[in-house]
Amino acid sequence: MEVVICSDERQVGEIAADRVIDWLFGLPTPVLGLATGSSPIALYEELARRAVLGDIDFSHAIGFALDEYVGIDPEHELSYKQTIRRTVVEPLRMNPARVHVPDGSAEDLAAAAAEYDRAIKDAGGVDVQVLGIGSNGHIGFNEPTSSFASRTRVKTLTQRTRDDNARFFAEGEQVPTHCVTQGLGTIMEAKHLVMVVTGEHKADAVEAMVEGPVSAMCPASILQFHPSALVVLDEAAASKLHYADYFRHIAASKPDVAEQGR
């Protein structure tokens, strides 16, 4: 796992975008795994800026979202289908028909989840998976105790996750209790992983992921086993890391951060 600590959110987006572009360069049909949440926004905004400049073209890319709420109307503004449309598909000028989101409204959720895994495989697998981290260490909606071998499936959201997400919903509006999420096993099959994290409220989760033991109690710690995982943090998110100075030294000792991990 490679850890890069940045001065602020803007630099987080720049460093992460450099690596995403580097990994996708030259691919005829890049496949991008898409996360929602607040942390990836800086990355998506920077990728959108680069797309306008002509540094990268996402019009021929394929996208797979990490997750979707169960039972929410796909046209609801807080569905992940609509969130991905607003924050990723339109800014990056992707073809909406080539961007897939798990079907949280399917009559047979298990079958729809299995089909989602098959669709990823049929596309050749994810080239770069964008990730955020929950305050309890979840990635996607793989809550603590999730199996490291898990595939796309239905998960029950913890109360902590529902409380964290309640701020997006109107007062009195029901926060979803279940989701369809790519499993940890599915996520780990991506060729490259890039996690972006900002804010002090994520510092404990970051410390557990990077410096703690690999444990199902911190699902994101599985990234320690991935051969090409980049974690890009701002100073606040890195504030609990004991080896922060070492990570800064590694980054400073290389003239081009985008060259790391090649």
UniProtKB/TrEMBL annotation:
Alphabetized Pfam families for the sequence: Glucosamine_iso
Top enzyme class: hydrolase
E.C. no: 3.5.99.6
GO molecular function, one term: glucosamine-6-phosphate deaminase activity
Ranges where the Glucosamine/galactosamine-6-phosphate isomerase domain occurs: 32-224
SUPFAM superfamilies: NagB/RpiA/CoA transferase-like (SSF100950)
Example GO BP: N-acetylglucosamine catabolic process
Catalytic activity field: alpha-D-glucosamine 6-phosphate + H2O = beta-D-fructose 6-phosphate + NH4(+)
Ranges in coiled-coil conformation: none
Entry keywords, A to Z: Allosteric enzyme, Carbohydrate metabolism, Hydrolase
Active site per database record: 67, 136, 138, 143
InterPro entries: Glc/Gal-6P_isomerase (IPR006148), Glucosamine6P_isomerase (IPR004547), Glucosamine6P_isomerase_CS (IPR018321), NagB/RpiA_transferase-like (IPR037171)
Residues carrying the site annotation Part of the allosteric site: 146, 153, 155-156
Regulation: Allosterically activated by N-acetylglucosamine 6-phosphate (GlcNAc6P).
GO CC, alphabetical: cytoplasm
Pathway(s) annotated for this protein in UniProt: Amino-sugar metabolism; N-acetylneuraminate degradation; D-fructose 6-phosphate from N-acetylneuraminate: step 5/5
Reported function: Catalyzes the reversible isomerization-deamination of glucosamine 6-phosphate (GlcN6P) to form fructose 6-phosphate (Fru6P) and ammonium ion.
Family: Belongs to the glucosamine/galactosamine-6-phosphate isomerase family. NagB subfamily.
Name of this protein: Glucosamine-6-phosphate deaminase
Taxonomic lineage from the root: Bacteria, Bacillati, Actinomycetota, Actinomycetes, Propionibacteriales
Name of the encoding gene: nagB
